[in-house]
Each structure stands twice: as C-alpha cells, then as structure tokens.
Amino acid sequence: MDAITMIKERRSIRKFKNEKVDRELMKEIVDIAKWAPSWVNFQIARYTLVDNEEIIGQLANEGVNGFVYNIDTLKNAKGVAVLSFVKGKSGKIDETNYATSLGNSWEIFDAGIACQTFCLAAHAKGVGTCIMGVIDEKSIARIVNLPEEETVAALIVYGYEADDYVASAQRKETEEIMRFADK
Ligand SMILES: Cc1cc2nc3c(=O)[nH]c(=O)nc-3n(C[C@H](O)[C@H](O)[C@H](O)COP(=O)(O)O)c2cc1C
Fold first, then answer.
1. Measured in angstroms, how far is the CA atom of residue 183 from the centroid of ligand 1?
2. Which of 157, 170, 174, 178 is the most exposed place for a label (fewest CB within 10 A)?
3. Residue 15 Cα, ligand 1 centroid: separation in angstroms?
C-alpha cells in the first residue's frame, strides 16, 4: 500500500468481526509504529495491548467516563491498545528546564504522532482502529497496571472491520485549512 492510499483510506472503525488479531501481527504493527518521530528521539510512547475479553469489558465499564458511544465500540472490540507516554521528558532542553512556552505539551504531541503512526501501520496491515479520547486515564492506568512513570494518552480500539460497517467522515476544503504567508 502506498503512503497516499494509506493516509486517505484509513478511517475510524467502530464495528469489528468476531475475530482476535494475532499477537505476532500486533507486534509487527508496533515494530512499524516505533519509527514515529519524537522530541529528541526520546521515544516516550508505550503500547499496552489488551486482547483479554474481561479486561476489555472493564475498560468499557470503567475507562470511558460512561460515554455510551465508546462503551458500544469497546463491547464489540476484540483488542484495545492503551497508548501511554513516559512523563517529564519531551519538551525539555536539559534535565530540568523546558525549551519552549508550550512546556510539557510536547509529550502529548509525541503521543499524538505515535497514535496516528500506529493507526496507519495497522491499516497497512489490514487492521482497523479507532482512537478514543473520551477516557478516564486514571481508571485505565489502574486496570492495566500501568507503570507509575507513564500517563495514558488514548485508547486505540483495533480489530478486523465488520463487513457491514460504513465509515463516513468527510474533510474540509483544502482552501479552508491552508494559507500562504506573503509579505
Ligand atoms: C484525539 C482524538 C480523540 C478521539 N476520540 C474519539 C472517541 O472518544 N470516540 C470515537 O468514537 N472516536 C474518537 N475519535 C475519532 C474521530 O471521531 C475521527 O477520527 C474523526 O471523526 C474523523 O474520522 P476518520 O478517523 O474516520 O477519518 C478521536 C480522534 C482523535 C484524533
């Protein structure tokens, strides 16, 4: 799959076949996703993969602030990646000082790039994904026993797209989102 097709054809998938994704294939996807760029190449993104039905159920019941839309997606999902990042590194110019007025925002920026890279890698390998930002990161951290130095950035539901699923998100006109800065 070429890069343009990969970018344009990736859609959020919220309905999945009743089939788990092989763990080896998920490892291949993370092997690709790890090539995402990051602040000073700190590579702070971490992927905790969940394919255990009971834990996915717990994530649905306790990890998405009761948001029914996400609960429904999780309840038919066969896999969930908990995307987290190691705190207190990205954005820093040395051990203690942040390099810009954006402070530690660069860590969530890194996590965002890692997130999209994971989704694109999964798509290229035939695996559908949906990023979830409406989450309760503290509950998720507890459920998956996340290391203390990490924060949850997002859930990424993954699996094989159901045959009857129709993805429909449109995009703005390019003229609306770009400009050239002229003198
Ligand atoms: C940061 C972020 C948070 C999101 N949170 C959710 C979410 O909680 N639940 C959901 O179903 N989709 C969520 N999405 C998916 C968006 O709704 C989706 O990307 C957008 O509508 C465009 O559709 P597409 O991904 O199919 O192109 C999120 C996407 C991003 C980037």
1. 37
2. 170
3. 14
Note whether residue 71 is domain-resident: yes
pLDDT tens, the chain, 183 aa long: 899 999 999 999 999 999 999 999 999 999 999 999 999 999 999 999 999 999 999 999 999 999 999 999 999 999 999 999 999 999 999 999 999 999 999 999 999 999 999 999 999 999 999 999 999 999 999 999 999 999 999 999 999 999 999 888 899 999 999 999 999
Residue 183 belongs to some domain of the structure: no
| Test site for ligand 1: of 69, 129, 130, 152, most ligand atoms within 8 A of the Cβ | 130
The answer to whether position 74 is within a domain reads yes
CATH number for the domain harbouring residue 143 = 3.40.109.10
Q: Would residue 22 count as lying in a domain?
A: yes
134 in ligand 1 pocket by Cβ < 6 Å? Answer: yes
DSSP-derived secondary structure for the chain: --HHHHHHH--B---B-S-PPPHHHHHHHHHHHTTS--GGG---EEEEEE--HHHHHHHHHHSSTT-HHHHHHHHT-SEEEEEEEETT-TTBSSSS-BSSTTTTHHHHHHHHHHHHHHHHHHHHTT-EEEEE-S--HHHHHHHHT--TTEEEEEEEEEEPBPTT---------HHHH------
